[in-house]
Amino acid sequence: MEAFAAWLVVWGKTRAVGWLARHWPKLVAAGLAVGGAAVFVAVTAATLVSGTDQDAVAANACTELGYMVDEAAYQPPPVDQKPVIPTGGPVAGFGRDDADKIANAQAIVAAGAEAGVGRRGLIVGIATALQESGLENLDHGDRDSLGLFQQRPSQGWGTAQQVLDPRFAALAFFGGATSPHFHPSAGKASPAGLLDVYGWADLPVTVAAQSVQRSAFPDAYAKHEDRAAVIVDALIDGVPAGALAPAPGTGVAPGSDPPGVVTAADFRASGVDIDAFCSSSFQLASATRPGSSLGGQIIPTGAWTAPLQSRITSAFGSRFHPIYREWRLHAGTDFHAAVGTPIASPTVGVVGGVLWTSGGGLTVTIAHADGIETQHLHLSEALVTPGEEVQGGQIIALSGGSGIGTGPHYHFEVHVDGEPVDAEPFMLQRGVNLRAWS
């Protein structure tokens, strides 16, 4: 009975944590509506990761992901090379043959003035259009993306004809009460535009744009900021001064309490690629840390061992993916593993990489003899570094729940000459039965 009660408590906690993980944005939004004082955590996270005075908060999230953070050595990752600002045209920031682009920029500025986004919002809008379309009203794009902002009709941005109308597209991007997607009952637009992002005026241009666009290249907008400012300043002559004042409610609420601990999950929820930030800014924890390489039972050279002695939860082969909801090859073997479970190298080898992937999260790859490579996915911490020689049985990492998955587990892959193979028969041929603990 006591065992059942303990299990019931653990089950209840797991369900509660899962519910909170799915619904915390709604809870935070409700809290803002009632109190009107707290700053939305996800937007704060986006600000923090880009603000030079808030690197410590991003560093904390990187530490959570298993990175060794030396803040004294931190250097922000460089922005992509900024494009040359064209000259010689009738409007600053444009070339001689850019009449159509100038007209599109004028439409964006007019829509921004109508929406009341101010100079800052106009710069965000122009920078976004420069990245998405080069200020050309494109009738094509990725999947069904169209127009100046590459808005997708299938995602609710309007019909193909509507998103190809520069004024319609710009008003939709700016959002707020003038958006064609504004819902009076909700008090905001859906899809959300710039004015629907709380505190957008205090965000870096690239983060503000990404909060609307949800681009696969979230850092790309920053390189267009300088040119966008030149264009906006050249086009706002004649725009009523009142239209250039920031819209009410766009800044951080005065008197707000400082935010609490911002986690890696908060950054990801706001569209910030915290994994790329960490990998480009810090080093993963390595075996130089005292005791991190100890604890594994070293086996003779040439012998093989199970990287983890645990129950198999998903085998190699084609399966219906629980997240992507489609049939695809599951190229590895999944094991039941709580976060922090030690993972061993199956045999002697050299660490080929310690990296982040979108699906596998924190991953360690090890090159072995005869064209064999093993991959270890969804880790919480890596205990080795690229180029390091490891012994069979040596602890190389701790399991986790990073990347895409339904919960913490350990994913083990074997590749032979670059192709994934089923780890179970492969290991059985080497005297290791991975099913021994199932």
UniProtKB/TrEMBL annotation:
Q: InterPro entries, per this entry?
A: Cell_wall_metabolism_enzyme (IPR050570), Dup_hybrid_motif (IPR011055), M23ase_b-sheet_dom (IPR016047)
Extract the CDD domains matched here.
M23_peptidase
The residues covered by the M23ase beta-sheet core domain are 329-422
Membrane spanning residue stretches: 26-49
Protein name, entry field: M23 family metallopeptidase
Query: Key word Transmembrane present in the record?
Result: yes
Q: Name one GO molecular function term.
A: metalloendopeptidase activity
Q: Which keywords accompany this UniProt record?
A: Membrane, Transmembrane, Transmembrane helix
Identify the PANTHER family for this entry: MUREIN HYDROLASE ACTIVATOR ENVC, PEPTIDASE-RELATED
